[in-house]
Design goal:
mainly alpha, Rossmann fold, Tyrosyl-Transfer RNA Synthetase, three-stranded parallel beta sheet, 7% strand, binds tryptophan, 16 helices, 56% helix
Length: 369
């Protein structure tokens, strides 16, 4: 930590420069929240979700999915949104949407999301949620939308030649995802922190403007995952679109092939050193996560046996860990009727909650006729 900078400029929070997303505050808060969750899981309602753009992979799994199931099993109420409208932020058409939505449901069921306890639903099937976007947009300035670092980054990487209005406004829509069910806890990675900050701003402004005294909306907290980042097999960020990800749905052979082709380095001795040996270290981490050991332990087992031995260890660890998840996944995959049923029920529940919240919003805004 740079204590000198703080000593020189005690009034200018160094976080504004070194930590533009407000990571360290969110990390401190998350530690406090973890304790509160253990003490009183029933106090929390979680909203979390994904864009239906492809199958989920190990980066998602150890980054967030695993944690969702943990929270659910602790007794936290959970809503899982399949954000189908959000797919259209950076592309013209959401390709294979029905298939991707069903694949997500399959992934959720396979990892242990229990539809009797958690509500799985899609954006586009919940009109009242989407209607919240209108009053919410009136509560944010164009400047609020324009300075969002995650949106800026997505624009920089977008394949579109123009930037759509949805790209700038989807964080306000995401606030509707979170607030329609009055979620007070949102497990996120750091890229989602700006959206959560906007959600908190919208909740506060709505309450100030329309419901002095009795708050319509809670100000939800981010629960930052402390899971370390896994790299893709090419050493870059693990991503659905880069072909460098091991999906939950992949079979054991495909997993072996992907790991066999993974980038390593030329040093024969295997050691955990994320700064100077990122690829080898990420593989060690993956095996460690699967075996509930430390990457250092795995490294010392392999010692000087080289990259081939490392890959063999990682392949076995991943395939063993994923075997029951994959078995459940293929069982559910044979029952599309059941999948549709889960979505229908989830959408029904989400609609009931959204209708109720919208009614409150309209009452607060004097627009019930
Ligand atoms: N933006 C998230 C992503 O890209 C998906 C998402 C949509 C989401 N709505 C949400 C996440 C609400 C958390 C809360 O992965």
């Amino acid at each position: 930590m740079n204590t000198t900078a703080q000593a020189v400029a005690p009034t200018a929070p160094s976080s504004a420069f070194a930590d533009p997303l407000g990571m360290s505050a969110a990390q401190d808060r998350s530690a406090v929240l973890e304790e509160l969750i253990l003490k009183n899981p029933g106090h929390f309602r979680v909203l979390t979700g994904d864009r239906p753009t492809g199958r989920l992979h190990l980066g998602h799994y150890f980054g967030t999915l695993h944690n969702r199931v943990r929270l659910q099993n602790l007794g936290v109420e959970m809503y899982v949104i399949i954000a189908d409208y959000q797919v259209l932020t950076d592309r013209d058409i959401a390709d294979n949407l029905t298939e991707h939505v069903e694949e997500l449901v399959l992934d959720y069921l396979a990892i242990g999301v229990n539809p009797a306890r958690s509500t799985i639903f899609t954006h586009s099937a919940v009109p009242a949620l989407n209607q919240l976007l209108l009053p919410f947009l009136s509560l944010v300035s164009v400047a609020d939308l324009e300075r969002n670092p995650t949106v800026k980054d997505e624009i920089a990487h977008s394949r579109q030649s123009t930037v759509s209005g949805l790209m700038f406004t989807y964080p306000a829509h995401q606030a509707a995802d979170i607030l329609f069910c009055k979620a007070n806890l949102v497990p996120v990675g750091k890229d989602q922190l700006p959206h959560l900050e906007l959600t908190r701003t919208i909740a506060r402004r709505f309450n100030d403007r329309y419901s002095a005294g009795s708050a319509v909306f809670p100000r939800p907290d981010a629960l930052l995952s402390n899971a370390p980042l896994l790299l893709g097999t090419d050493g870059g960020k693990m991503s659905k679109s880069r072909g460098n990800a091991i999906t939950l749905a992949a079979d054991a052979d495909e997993t072996a092939r992907l790991i066999k082709g993974a980038k390593t380095d030329s040093e024969r001795h295997i050691a955990y050193d994320p700064a100077s040996r990122p690829e080898v270290s990420s593989l060690l981490l993956l095996a460690a996560l699967c075996q509930n050991r430390t990457p250092e332990q795995i490294a010392s087992d392999i010692g000087s046996a080289g990259a081939a031995a490392l890959k063999k260890t990682v392949t076995e660890a991943v395939n063993e860990y994923l075997a029951p998840i994959r078995a459940r996944r293929s069982e559910y995959a044979n029952d599309r009727t059941y999948l549709r049923e889960i979505l229908r029920e989830g959408n029904e529940r989400a609609n009931a909650v959204a209708d109720k919240t919208l009614a409150e919003v309209r009452a607060a805004m004097n627009s019930r006729y």
